[in-house]
From TrEMBL:
<dbReference type="InterPro" id="IPR036412">
    <property type="entry name" value="HAD-like_sf"/>
</dbReference>
<feature type="transmembrane region" description="Helical">
    <location>
        <begin position="62"/>
        <end position="87"/>
    </location>
</feature>
<dbReference type="InterPro" id="IPR051014">
    <property type="entry name" value="Cation_Transport_ATPase_IB"/>
</dbReference>
<keyword id="KW-1133">Transmembrane helix</keyword>
<dbReference type="InterPro" id="IPR008250">
    <property type="entry name" value="ATPase_P-typ_transduc_dom_A_sf"/>
</dbReference>
<dbReference type="InterPro" id="IPR027256">
    <property type="entry name" value="P-typ_ATPase_IB"/>
</dbReference>
<feature type="domain" description="P-type ATPase A">
    <location>
        <begin position="112"/>
        <end position="210"/>
    </location>
</feature>
<dbReference type="InterPro" id="IPR023298">
    <property type="entry name" value="ATPase_P-typ_TM_dom_sf"/>
</dbReference>
<dbReference type="InterPro" id="IPR001757">
    <property type="entry name" value="P_typ_ATPase"/>
</dbReference>
<feature type="transmembrane region" description="Helical">
    <location>
        <begin position="31"/>
        <end position="50"/>
    </location>
</feature>
<keyword id="KW-1003">Cell membrane</keyword>
<keyword id="KW-0067">ATP-binding</keyword>
<keyword id="KW-0472">Membrane</keyword>
<keyword id="KW-0479">Metal-binding</keyword>
<dbReference type="InterPro" id="IPR018303">
    <property type="entry name" value="ATPase_P-typ_P_site"/>
</dbReference>
<dbReference type="Pfam" id="PF00702">
    <property type="entry name" value="Hydrolase"/>
</dbReference>
<dbReference type="InterPro" id="IPR023214">
    <property type="entry name" value="HAD_sf"/>
</dbReference>
């Protein structure tokens, strides 16, 4: 039963009891009604408490059950009814607060495109987005959201990509440019050729991440159970001492009535949901509350290099053919096997080739972390790392990022690339150091010398170069306990295993691969490395607010219990004050929504 329905039922019973007591002058029936309601609600709470105890935790419901039982035992059934109203009202208030905290997180779901205008000949049909296939031609009308990723076939257009990148400035696109789903069209209709199915398109993947983040349980809500036992002991101790001194059983009821478990039940989960919503508003999807807790306690962080610390927009720098091949032949071989790959080096090669017609390789096979091979005009072409393409003793002529090539297992040459460090990289590393992160590393598949040059430029001192995916896993798995939790930041397919193995995986999802985003606990939706340090800072602030909110609520309850122990706080008023404690805890927790 939903909490709001429980609240309405209890409130209705309270109204009936009021009529019986004060209008019909039947207090006996009012007492029976309230007592029966109290027993039924206590059974519901008891069932929940038993489930918690079976999970190995000490639940907070025992305080609520004790307060109801104590007030009924001393005949103060109106106080018992107010406790029931406060408990069910508090649960409803929690639902409202969670809904408010999730508002930014769910805004993406509300704008999900569901219909596409498919063009068939001269006809235009509205079809479900899920029915659109690769190669279909669709029309996107002015101010509509692009439903799937595609290629622009019509003329120049201005698009609003703010929901994906966070940049409010419209982006200019011309014929032949790739378009992201989730972008908002400008003032004129455009024609698009579909390049990805709806489920694989940028916006739908983002929406799925939000769905996943809602399904993931926030483990840290069990913080309530960690404080439940000592808080319960304190409440019973104060109630017991008050009774021993006064010999008045009403003191037990009066103390337990204000021993509200609401700060423990509400504060932590609401703060965590608010922190997740704040992150989403800032272009970062955190998939669960557990991740926020880990980011708050993290001790070490590792970065991939290409596409993470660098822009990843590499350009072809030099073409160095060997064994009688020309530069044109060498680059054509590479383009043939790489033209279907999404790897940053493959993209750079295709940009260099431009519109030049290239034969499509057959029998393509990608070896993760090493390279790709395929047949071009009957010849076996391998492109990738040197030890993958050939076993010949080759003297490398440069220390730059390179693709090596062999044809029919005979070395054919090398293509070098240049990359640029992200302008925000140095500041991001400086912020992490300022936060007290003990260990900052670069773990890269690129050469050690190249990796060290990049690391020196941005302020990283520990560098692991020339790493295969399995090497990255070994480094992360072997991290000693004093450096955990450890965070891994990456963007490519080869980073996906590392993001899974790390205590927290952060994917640069704006341009990175979908597999990296799927494997990660945190996905950065804007192409800005500084979002890494921003996310860690938000997590630390969220956890600080969660702890503060719990302790504020406990402190207020403790003060009220001490006042009640002296007999100056009747149970009826104390029961009403529970709602005040609820409001204080929730208001404090919702501070995690605000940017600072």
């Amino acid at each position: 039963m939903k909490n709001i329905y429980k609240f309405i039922i209890v409130l209705s019973i309270a109204l009936v009891a009021l009529v019986l007591e004060f209008i019909l002058k039947e207090p006996h029936y009012a007492k029976i009604l309230i007592t029966a309601t109290g027993i039924l609600m206590s059974i519901v709470l008891l069932k929940g408490m038993i489930d918690v105890l079976r999970s190995g935790n000490f639940g907070v419901d025992i305080l609520a059950i004790s307060a109801i039982a104590a007030t009924l035992a001393v005949g103060n059934y109106w106080a018992a009814l107010i406790i029931l109203i406060m408990i069910t009202g508090g649960d409803s208030l929690e639902d409202y607060a969670q809904k408010k905290a999730r508002k930014d997180l769910k805004s993406l779901l509300d704008n999900t495109p569901r219909i596409a205008h498919k063009k068939t000949g001269n006809d235009l049909h509205d079809v479900p987005v899920e029915d659109i296939k690769i190669g279909d031609i669709i029309i996107v009308k002015p101010k509509e959201i692009i439903p799937v990723d595609g290629i622009l076939l019509s003329g120049e257009v201005l698009l609003d990509e703010s929901s994906l990148t966070g940049e409010s400035k419209p982006v200019n696109k011309t014929k032949g440019n790739g378009l992201w789903s989730g972008s908002v069209n400008g003032s004129g209709a455009i024609t698009i050729q579909v390049s990805k199915l709806a489920k694989d398109s940028q916006y739908q993947q983002l929406v799925q991440l939000v769905h996943n983040s809602e399904k993931e349980p926030a483990h840290f809500v069990r913080m309530a159970d960690r404080y439940a036992l000592p808080f319960t002991i304190v409440a019973f101790l104060i109630a017991g001492i008050a009774y021993l001194i006064t010999k008045d059983p009403n003191r037990i009821a009066e103390v337990l009535v204000v021993a509200s478990p609401c700060p423990l039940i509400l504060a932590a989960p609401i703060a965590l949901i608010a922190g997740m919503s704040r992150s989403s508003r800032n272009g970062v999807v955190i998939k669960s509350g557990t991740v926020i807790e880990k980011l708050d306690r993290m001790k070490a962080i590792a970065f991939d290099k290409t596409g993470t610390l660098t822009k990843g927009d590499l350009t072809v720098d030099d073409i160095i053919p060997e064994n009688s091949y020309s530069q044109d032949e060498l680059i054509d071989f590479v383009a043939s096997v790489e033209q279907q790959s999404s790897h940053v080096l493959a993209v750079s090669v295709m940009k260099y080739i431009g519109d030049k017609p290239i034969p499509l390789a057959t029998d393509l096979k990608e070896i993760e972390g090493n390279g790709i091979e395929g047949k071009v005009n009957g010849k076996l072409v391998k492109v990738g790392k040197l030890n993958f393409v050939t076993t010949e003793p080759i003297s490398i002529k440069t220390e730059k990022t390179s693709l090596f090539v062999s044809v029919n297992d005979k070395y054919a040459g090398e293509i070098t690339f240049t990359d640029e460090v992200r302008p925000e990289a140095r500041q991001t590393i400086a912020q992490l150091i300022k936060m007290g992160i003990q260990k900052i590393m670069m773990i890269s598949g690129d050469k050690q010398s190249i990796s060290e040059n990049i690391a020196k430029e941005i302020g990283i001192t520990e560098v692991h170069g020339g790493c295969l995916p399995e090497d990255k896993l070994k480094i992360l798995k072997s991290m000693p306990g004093e450096f955990r939790p450890v965070v891994m930041v990456g963007d490519g397919v080869n980073d996906a295993p590392s993001l899974t193995v790390a205590d927290v995986g952060i994917a640069m999802g704006a341009k990175g691969s979908s597999s990296a985003s799927d494997s990660a606990d945190v996905v950065i939706l804007r192409d800005n490395l500084q979002k890494v340090s921003d996310t860690i800072l938000i997590s630390k602030e969220t956890m600080k607010i969660a702890r503060q909110s719990v302790f504020i609520g406990i402190a207020v309850c403790t003060v009220l219990m001490l006042i009640a122990a002296f007999g100056v706080l009747p149970a009826l008023i104390g029961a009403g004050l529970q709602e005040v404690v609820d409001v204080i805890s929730i208001t404090s927790a919702l501070r995690a929504l605000k940017d600072r």
